[in-house]
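USER:
I wish I could look at a protein chain and see how it folds. I am handing you a single protein, as its sequence and its fold in token form. As I understand it, each token names a local backbone shape. I hope you can help me see how the letters and the tokens relate. The protein I mean follows directly.
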Amino acid sequence: MMDETTGITSRSLCAVVVTNLDFRLCLKVKEMDRCDTSSLKKLLEETLLEYEIDWQQITNFVTDGARVCVSLGRRLNEQYAIQHTLCAAHLLHLISQKLIESFPNINGLCKLVRVFFKRGIQAGRKKRWESQNITDIFLPSKKSWGTWLKCVSDVFMRRKNLCTFITKEETSETANQMIMCLTNEGSIQDLRIIGYFSRLFTPLIDGIQEQQLRKDTLNRWRNIETWLFKMSGKDYAKIINLSDNSGTMGKIMDFLNKIRRYKPRWEDATVSFTFKAQTFNEI
């Protein structure tokens, strides 16, 4: 049940897709079946075809993901800028899952990711970070999708410590707003997104220097879990598309326990991503 984007394969694939595709071509098109896929086709023809993957097949994956993303955004309350993050997380998850099925050779995939990682460094992406405000990155209500997605990619690919980019005020404001939006009933359309969020605002919470404020923020996260535990089995099944006889409650309980006990930590300078109990040094 654990969100697959926590794994090395999915995390790497997300980075590849985010770094090299302009999602505005998918998200801003009115008719998804007529989506302009020129940038996607170029990437696939130059690189992915080396692995004998049909570019049209992956084009369909991206189009389907964009359709889900747009549909999800319309269902969320417009007053919450967090809807953009929810949509992006869902879209990345869907695309990474589909791409994984097309890469049976994990060694070849990791090699491909390292190539893109090297290109990103050479392109001088650090300059973009210096001009970005952390609140705009995580709550991009007035930012373009492409810019935000690439910034998120830079966070994980370059292993930057978020706390070095933000003040205490920005840290507490962003973390609190993210958590408060999640506690709003109806905002959680897909339970898997919670795992993604836990990794996003863990460094924000850790960066809060004032002890009481940090404690209050963590308590709000626990309230989210409490709200989820109160939901019925049928509600859970509806959210994650599982039937009542498939052990839904057990999987949900296990999933939330993992979120509560584990924090992410980078262990390798390339693409390795693992969980360590009660430890968090850098992301």
